[in-house]
């Protein structure tokens, strides 16, 4: 059965999908290791973790086509990598890894693939591979559902991590303590039930000094109320409330 070469457009879209997926996975792993309270940890971002993330990223990115010559992006776009002299055989893991190393110089790769008649970039020429339309590609619906699902997971993870980071900070805990001890707020909203899933605001700490702002939804048994809190953290000191409005 004769199969056709994959279009340049499909290959570009597949590459972008892979790039964002791998970046998301790597960032997710780093954030999970750091924990949601990393903002207020002494010493900032651990250098060792940054060093360890580099080889993990290399393995993820350069080895992305290791499953039968097909990465997630290529599966979505219905294309696959095959040997130059056999459209039915997947290249070795070594060749699949080697062909992706040249993506480091992606501007040059883009120029090469535009003008190459077989749509080969430098990595393909070195590893002796071609990218074809996958004759055994999955149906369109599962692929569409997968890409939508990936987008939803990405969105939910980022929101959840940001919310968790804001809520675990000492600044937020101080703001909540002030709200719970405020008699006027308690009389207005009644017994406090919750503070909403996602507080808006930000926390910034640099060289031991910090600034934080929160807009917290207070959910009571009688009604809801928004409370705006601003805080500062002097160097080597504790958080202090500078503004408290409702």
List the topology elements.
Elements: H1 8-34, H2 47-62, H3 72-77, E1 79-83, H4 93-101, H5 106-115, H6 122-127, E2 129-133, H7 140-168, H8 170-180, H9 183-189, E3 192-194, E4 200-206, E5 209-220, E6 224-233, E7 240-245
Antiparallel strand pairs: 1-2, 3-5, 4-5, 5-6, 6-7
Taking the sheet with the most strands, its summary is: 5 strands, antiparallel
Percent strand equals 15-25%
Number of helical regions: 9
Low-confidence stretches: none
Span from first to last CA?
Answer: 71 Å
Helix/strand class: alpha+beta
Number of strands: 7
Subcellular location: Cell membrane
Main location: membrane
Pfam family, one: RDD
Keywords: Cell membrane, Membrane, Transmembrane, Transmembrane helix
Comma- or semicolon-separated keywords:
two-stranded antiparallel ribbon, alpha+beta, 5-stranded antiparallel sheet, 9 helices, 246 residues, 2 domains, 7 strands
Concise account of the structure shown:
Helices cover 49% and strands 20% of the residues. By secondary structure, it is α+β, with helices and mostly antiparallel strands.
């Amino acid at each position: 059965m004769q199969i056709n070469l994959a279009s340049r457009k499909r290959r570009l879209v597949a590459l972008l999908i892979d790039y964002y997926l791998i970046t998301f996975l790597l960032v997710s792993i780093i954030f999970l290791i750091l924990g949601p309270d990393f903002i207020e940890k002494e010493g900032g971002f651990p250098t060792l973790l940054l060093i360890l993330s580099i080889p993990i990223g290399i393995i993820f990115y350069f080895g992305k086509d290791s499953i039968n010559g097909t990465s997630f992006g290529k599966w979505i776009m219905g294309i696959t990598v095959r040997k130059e002299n056999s459209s039915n055989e997947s290249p070795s893991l070594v060749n699949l890894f080697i062909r992706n190393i040249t993506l480091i110089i992606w501007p040059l790769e883009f120029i090469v693939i535009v003008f190459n008649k077989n749509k080969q970039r430098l990595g393909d020429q070195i590893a002796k591979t071609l990218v074809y339309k996958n004759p055994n590609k999955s149906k369109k619906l599962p692929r569409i559902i997968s890409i939508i699902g990936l987008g939803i997971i990405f969105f939910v993870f980022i929101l959840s991590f940001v919310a968790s980071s804001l809520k675990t900070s000492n600044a937020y805990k101080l703001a909540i303590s002030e709200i719970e001890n405020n008699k006027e707020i308690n009389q207005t909203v009644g017994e406090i039930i919750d503070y909403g899933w996602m507080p808006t605001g930000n926390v910034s700490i640099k060289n031991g000094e910090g600034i934080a702002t929160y807009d917290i939804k207070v959910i009571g048994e009688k009604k809801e109320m928004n409370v705006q809190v601003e805080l500062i953290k002097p160097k080597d000191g504790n958080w202090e409330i500078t503004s408290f409005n409702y």
